[in-house]
Amino acid sequence: AQKVTQAQTEISVVEKEDVTLDCVYETRDTTYYLFWYKQPPSGELVFLIRRNSFDEQNEISGRYSWNFQKSTSSFNFTITASQVVDSAVYFCAPSILTGGGNKLTFGTGTQLKVEL
Amino acid sequence: DTGVSQDPRHKITKRGQNVTFRCDPISEHNRLYWYRQTLGQGPEFLTYFQNEAQLEKSRLLSDRFSAERPKGSFSTLEIQRTEQGDSAMYLCASSLGDRDVGELFFGEGSRLTVL
Lengths: 116, 115
Known about the structure:
Strand content of chain A: over 45%
Shape of chain B: globular
Oligomer: heterodimer
Structural class of chain A: mainly beta
Largest sheet of chain B: 7 strands, mixed
Strand content of chain B: over 45%
Low-confidence stretches of chain B: none
Low-confidence stretches of chain A: none
Mean pLDDT of chain B: 92
Number of strands of chain B: 11
Order of helices and strands of chain A: EEEEEEEEEEEE
Distance between the termini of chain B: 33 Å
Helix content of chain A: under 10%
Largest sheet of chain A: 6 strands, mixed
Radius of gyration of chain A: 14 Å
Distance between the termini of chain A: 41 Å
Number of helices of chain A: 0
Largest interface: A-B, 28 and 28 residues
Helix content of chain B: under 10%
């Protein structure tokens, strides 16, 4: 079984600030994937990033970047120069392959509020 | 709109009634998932289909819940004898792939309120 801890329940920042969302996960699987999803007020979950457990290289994609450290089971997500439209609930989700499918385990989410 | 669509978006029902939700995945996606999300929580996995085969069911899926994907395209999730604890957002997602772990594309959800 997998478990996800997103210790930050709510974060408020002022527009243009950088913000990092923390995620710590537990898994017994040696092969797994890690995802971040965003859920704006409209409710639809939007895919942001994916990382597999073999690749600890951290990357930047536009205003998004992530820091994956397998040794500490952390997969933190950073938004640079935040914007009001970034306001949403952000979910970290490790996954395992199950019967060929991709089974995600979501955390409780971090509510991000970006204010002017 | 070629995304995942769900119907109805909102359903209010009385305890004990049956309800059915429909999900139309992205057309070329062979995998389809159902999740449930309650207020303040992250989505929880319910069940998964690869084409028409239901390959996994969560323990959350009691005997009152049944899901089908008869032709490997759309899927239905039926809840019989609804209880107030069934009130939640029911999310459908689809993905494409055989061995690769592709991202899930979610629909906007079907919100169920049981009175």
